[in-house]
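Quarterly update from the structural biology core.
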Amino acid sequence: MLKRRVTLQDVAKQAGVSKVTVSNILNKRETAVPISETTRERVLAAVQELGYYPNAVARALARQRADAIAVVLQFPSIFQGWSGFTNELMHGVSDRAIELNFDILLHTRAQGSLEAEAQALMDGRVDGALLLRDYEDPLSDLLAEYGFPHVLFFTRSRRDDVYWVDCDNRAGARLAVEHLLNLGHQRIAHLAGPPSAYSAGERRQGYMATLRDHGIEVKPEWIIPLHYPGADFTPLANLLQRRDHPTALFVWSDDVAMRALSVCAELGLSVPEDIAIVGFDSTQICEHTSPNLSSVNQPIYQMASDALAMLASLVSGKPVEPRARLYTPSLDIRGSCGAKKGGNA
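Predicted structure, tokenized:
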């Protein structure tokens, strides 16, 4: 037989007081008539004796706070195949949420409309949301109109009233491309991310601007869209088999760069002797590829942690300044571009 759940009424009956008195004591509310210490001790003893646990939903309704935050990605399917980036992001979010006593809800339910998605976030289960969405995605605009607390991370907003956390992706691309140029590479191709992703677009722009600043022609056919590791890498394979093939690749993400390493191996190309490769994110997986993957390091863990802290402050009604935080990347140089493992620039 299932054990019946102990209720607030059970505690009140055991202690010989009203439900309101029990609620005031458990929630540490100040009352017009002070509650005696004897009554307080009797209620707490009844709670312990009966094994009473407050109903979280009821408490949230009473306090108008759920002490929970939603993490909303552009595509819920991202949660189905955890990448090094996603893992590091969630690590940063989770650690800070535990520190600040917030629960995390992974928002994966597909909605029929933008309004329905916004309403699902605002139905009382969470106090705010961290959004990893495309730059022009309208969900943030709608939440802002409703005044619902949210912070964009790893992307930006064109609005002045929306909070966001991002990395200087153009600067990161420049670090990668200039390092390859300094190693003597002139024929550098770029494996590009989805045009709808702000970060991918900035990395592509940084790649092109750096080449032009060094007097090198940008070849459109050498910018190959490869949005995820499971994409069709035939265009890259075809490019690498040309006589005038690139001698270096700047790749928009580590996960795609790892697949590029495999393609090079299948073609009999040695990395870094035949072709150098630099990725972006510098997740832990870079230390487990062969050779180890050089990569632009954006502080994913710190950025995710700070975004959660910003949102927690917004939910609590505390001032948050600045509204926008831009983090500076660095370059972790490993074996895939011909440098010794562990160096940096």
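The two ends are 65 Å apart (CA to CA).
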